[in-house]
Specification:
The chain is α/β, with parallel strands linked by helices. The chain is 40% helix and 15% strand. A five-stranded mixed beta sheet has the order 2-1-3-4-5, sandwiched between helices.
């Protein structure tokens, strides 16, 4: 004799969004307890680009002396994610992660690692994308300045560090 299993509660058609929303209702009732489990030195924000993952983690671990002392977030464009009109969901995620890292890990600074030949910059700037050299550096610097201004506007008083990495892993600090 077999056991028949199924969901009999769904007698009417429900969209995926409706199902997902109804599935999450129970989660919102769960108590959330924020644990400041650690005092972490930094929130490290890097781009999602697969070409740079190993170099970026090595940069945070070794070059910035943050081994086991940083939270890591990867968002397309890194600092661009904070302010890009082309990526409104990334804007929200960027600021949510900053807030969460402050609340849970008492971060002391934010280290952002942009990179050259970035697809997110190509999407945001289209035909105005600065492809290489000093022009590309200045385009990144402009976004980094906007990001710093947004930290200030939001009254988030954390030291900021900005870096630009080449695809070969070489990195330079960018002053804003």
């Amino acid at each position: 004799m077999g056991v028949k299993m199924g969901l009999s509660v769904c007698s009417t058609a429900m969209s995926r969004r409706g199902f997902a929303a109804s599935s999450l209702v129970g989660l919102s009732a769960l108590p959330f307890v924020a644990h400041a489990a650690a005092n972490i030195e930094a929130l490290a924000i890097m781009c999602i680009d697969y070409r740079l993952v190993d170099s970026a983690v090595s940069f945070f671990d070794d070059k910035r002396n943050l081994r086991k002392q940083f939270d890591l977030v990867a968002l397309a464009g890194a600092s661009l994610a904070a302010v890009a009109p082309a990526f409104p969901a990334s804007n929200a995620a960027f600021w949510d992660h900053v807030s969460i890292a402050q609340q849970l890990h008492n971060i002391k600074r934010v280290v952002m690692l942009d990179h050259r030949d970035c697809g997110a910059y190509k999407v945001q700037f289209g035909s105005h994308y600065a492809d290489g050299g000093t022009a590309e550096l200045e385009q990144h610097r402009g976004i980094m300045k906007l990001t710093a201004a947004e930290f200030e506007r939001r009254k988030i008083n954390l030291p900021l560090e900005f870096y630009l990495m080449a695809v070969d892993g070489t990195t330079e600090r960018v002053t804003v």
